[in-house]
Design brief:
single chain, about 220 residues, mainly beta, 8-stranded parallel beta sheet, 4-stranded parallel beta sheet, about 75% strand, globular
Length: about 220
């Protein structure tokens, strides 16, 4: 089976690095400012393939950390330029197709795990805590566009997602103190346009989200 993967991403330099990994007692201050426009675009044409995946992603600021022990994190992200992603795809006679266009202003992802480098029964960080102060601001409209022309495909999945600010925290601590503020000062736009014939199944999603926070406390 032929497998074809397409990917394009426009991101500031900081997210090219791996997630920050820290243990014991951690104090992290993160300040990110994106002043210019961020744009990711892709035009693709595929014929007679087994599996095709295409992604266009534009992100203003991104911060990711994996933490063990007591941790204090202060993060401030500001995006003042346009964040735009556009994916145009023509696909014929292909078994499985997955297409994604994503535009994100600011994103923070934190995993806080006291047992990162020790066993659950003998870990010195059993009473570890997380202190998080998160500030995220978007001043211009994130926009994601996905346009599809498809014929004779098996399964087609297409998603356009535009998000202003996103915070995700997964914590294994007994104590977590989180203070977060998210502000979007403009529109958030998502659009999917599709013309499809001869497909077994089609799933299309267009999602526009201003601000989102997800906190998962995994301890009893």
């Amino acid at each position: 089976m032929k497998r074809i993967l397409f990917s394009t991403a426009a991101l500031i330099a900081v997210i090219a690095a791996a997630p920050a990994l820290a243990q014991d007692n951690n104090n992290i201050i993160n300040g990110q400012i994106n002043l210019g426009d961020v744009w990711a675009g892709m035009d693709m044409a595929v014929y007679d393939a087994g599996y095709v995946e295409g992604t266009a992603a534009a992100i203003g600021n991104s911060f990711s950390a994996e933490l063990g022990g007591d941790s204090g994190v202060w993060t401030n992200q500001r995006t003042t330029g346009a964040i735009e992603s556009s994916l145009n795809a023509t696909v014929d006679w292909t078994e499985d197709v997955t297409l994604t266009s994503a535009a994100v202003g600011n994103t923070v992802s934190i995993l806080s795990e006291p047992y990162l480098d020790c066993g659950v029964d003998d870990c010195p960080y059993d009473d570890a805590s997380l202190e998080l102060d998160n500030r995220q601001y978007v001043n211009y409209d994130p926009t994601a566009t996905l346009t599809i022309w498809a014929n004779g495909v098996g399964h087609l999945n297409g998603t356009a997602a535009a998000i202003g600010n996103s915070l995700s925290v997964e914590a294994w601590n007994h104590e977590n103190n989180i203070d977060t503020r998210q502000v979007v000062n403009d529109d958030v736009n998502s659009y999917v346009g599709a013309a499809v014939s001869g497909a077994d199944s089609v799933t299309l999603t267009s999602a526009a989200v201003g601000n989102t926070v997800s906190i998962d406390n995994l301890m009893d």
